[in-house]
Design brief:
The complex is a heterodimer.
Chain A lengths: L5 H8 L2 E8 L6 E9 L7 E11 L1 H7 L4 H18 L15 H11 L4 E6 L2 H13 L5 E5 L7 H7 L2 E4 L18 H8 L2 E4 L4 H4 L5 H11 L10 H6 L3 H6 L17 E4 L10 E6 L2 E2 L5 H10 L13
Parallel strand pairs in A: 3-4, 4-5, 5-6, 6-7
Antiparallel strand pairs in A: 1-2, 2-3, 8-9, 9-10
Chain B lengths: L1 E4 L2 E5 L19 E4 L1 E3 L3 E2 L3 H4 L5 H9 L2 H4 L4
Antiparallel strand pairs in B: 1-2
Classes of the chains: A alpha/beta, B alpha+beta.
Chain lengths: 317, 75
């Protein structure tokens, strides 16, 4: 994690103080471990390293695992079995059915034991149910789901399971075949059914615009006023971009809300933070006042009002 | 009102507590005060070299099947 990355400063300027970050799966359904970071203007961004293991199932995982969902789920189940059988021992007597390197298997041991959160990316309703069913064989698993575009189709099962869902707010077009039931009412319907939902920026394009989260949250409030659509209340919407993501990764007691004992992450806004014409006027992270300038604001200020003589020739007339 | 000491929130809401005389006070009258926003799940793109240890599993699966003890089975 590069603490000087421009995306971090830009997010901070718009009131984002913490982020759940995950590796992108390259050649393996196991993308690796994710971390929780703060966006503070210092060289120490990691709040919680190795906060969770991230696994790609669904279409993304199927592609990586050779083009089939059965393959990716089989791989995943086998990997969990190996980790369970390993139970932290040095693997002098590993079984014949060895799919993982000893490092991979060892890394999954805390997941099987429920000591480390498992974040799973799935979109399709059936894939969601398949992941929930994994808990029958591995009751220790602490699972949170990411994506979950078709979650509203199985909202009752999700609600009963109690697992956390981090979903895109307004994913209303089927970008792939696993999202055929995409609707912008997904979050509203899941929430109305009692699913634990947080808003996340799942799409790769979105992740570079983390600050748009509050726009999405505001849109969910507005959706409640559209006939036939399902939105959420203002309080729900704001919770979905503050306390809920923190709870989803098991750190609700650390940040995401203003209560005694929480980290001192405070934003003073010019107005309603879910309105786009409001802006942060002051931001504190861990009680430290943060600078609100970044590369973009500096460019804006530098070129906003240039002396005529400083302009290129063609613009001087 | 939000009271912060040593980087942590001490109290929030309708606070009735005596603050030390040297407390720094910031007046946010007419403004909105919230906890910082928590960004759920921005993908963190790692360079290829770092993701290299995660070898493709399918080739490994094939490898495991063709390992010596497997091939020693009567054909």
């Amino acid at each position: 994690v590069n603490p000087k990355a421009s995306t971090i400063a830009v997010s901070r300027t718009d009131g984002v103080t913490r982020a759940v970050v995950a590796p992108v799966a390259a050649k393996n359904i196991f993308a690796g471990q994710g971390a929780i970071i703060d966006t503070g203007d210092d060289m120490d961004p990691i709040v919680r390293a190795r906060a969770f293991q991230f696994v790609e199932l669904g279409e993304g995982g199927a592609g990586i695992a050779g083009g089939s969902r059965s393959a990716s789920f089989a791989l995943f189940r086998n990997a969990l079995r190996e980790a369970r059988d390993l139970r932290g021992r040095v693997d002098a007597n590993r079984q014949e059915d060895v799919l993982l390197t000893r490092f991979d298997a060892a890394a999954l041991v805390p997941v099987v034991q429920g000591k480390q959160l498992l974040l799973v990316h799935v979109e399709r309703a059936k894939d969601i149910l398949n992941v929930l069913e994994l808990r029958q064989e591995f009751p220790g698993l602490k699972i949170a789901l990411v994506g979950v575009t078709e979650g509203w189709l199985v909202a009752d099962k999700l609600a009963a399971s109690g697992v956390w869902v981090i979903a895109s707010a307004l994913n209303d077009l089927p970008a792939s075949f696993e999202m055929l039931a995409a609707t912008q009412s997904n979050i509203g319907r899941m929430r109305a059914t009692g699913v634990n939902v947080a808003i996340g920026m799942i799409d790769d394009n979105d992740t570079r615009y983390v600050r748009n989260q509050r726009q999405y949250a505001g849109n969910l409030v507005a959706l409640g006023k559209v006939p036939g659509a399902a939105g959420v209340s203002w309080a729900e919407a704001f919770a979905m971009i503050s306390s809920r993501p923190a709870e989803a990764v098991g750190l609700g007691g650390e940040f995401g809300s203003l209560a005694a004992g929480r980290r001192g992450d405070v934003v003073i806004w010019s107005g309603d933070p879910l309105e786009l014409d409001s802006a942060p006027e002051a931001v504190w992270i861990d009680g430290v006042r943060q600078p609100l300038d970044n590369h973009q604001t500096k460019l804006r200020d530098r070129y906003r009002s240039l002396e005529r003589k400083a302009l290129p020739e063609a613009y001087r007339k | 009102m939000v009271v912060i000491r040593d980087g942590r929130v001490v109290a929030a809401g309708d606070v009735r507590m005596k603050l030390p005389a040297d407390t720094q006070v910031i007046d946010a009258t007419g403004k909105w005060v919230t906890p910082g926003i928590v960004a759920g799940f921005p993908g963190l793109v790692w360079p290829k070299s770092i993701s290299a240890p995660t070898d493709p599993m399918i080739p490994r699966l094939v490898e495991a099947r063709s390992a010596p003890r497997s091939t020693s089975r009567p054909e």
